[in-house]
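Structure tokens please, single chain.
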Amino acid sequence: MVKSFVCLGLWLFVPGNSDDTPIKLADCPGAVQSTLKAEIGSAKVELVNRETDESGATTYWADVLLLGKTYSIGVLGDGTLVEMTLGLDADEVLFERLPAAVQATFKSEGFGLKIDRASKELKFGVQVYEAVVNHKGRRYELVVAEEGTLVEKVLVIEDDEVEFSRCPAAVQATLTKHAGADMIQEVTRYSGIVKPTYEAEVEINGKVYLIEVAESGVLISKSLEATEDE
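Here you go.
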């Protein structure tokens, strides 16, 4: 078993600028409606935001309350699920809302990789922002002060490959719900700063997804992985 030191983080797809006002679910393409209903079951969707990125691809985003937690779900017009992500915590900030100096440092120290959100907290009376990037198979935690000073850049957490059957029952249940147990070979367990999390890559309808689940069984994210030709 190979171990490396990594840091827990969330990798999210951030919507582009909206090209329209919110629309009703019934006004979305049929494939979008089908995917949303498959992911949320009996939960209610009031409105959907239709958003288009620079390449012209349109994504339909809905905020849905599932088991007492809010998720943001993005679906392409053809019904492809792009992202299903647990909502922002009170101490999290979207990247574009960070101070400009903080954004600049994250970009320069984060290997030029995209960062979608950062957490904020006070350390020794100083406001700092923390984010995680995945570079060459390792995860780095970056801590940046409000004026843009790099405070820390470090690998901090061990990870292990574990068999699906050895995951907590709650984790198995969530992975099975969102992927199907027969699709899961191995799961990566991240020790975490507070509690462990579990990640698995699964193939669904010919597309590869990364599913991240908390030890309690709460779904953290389910995101479409980019292919080499994308």
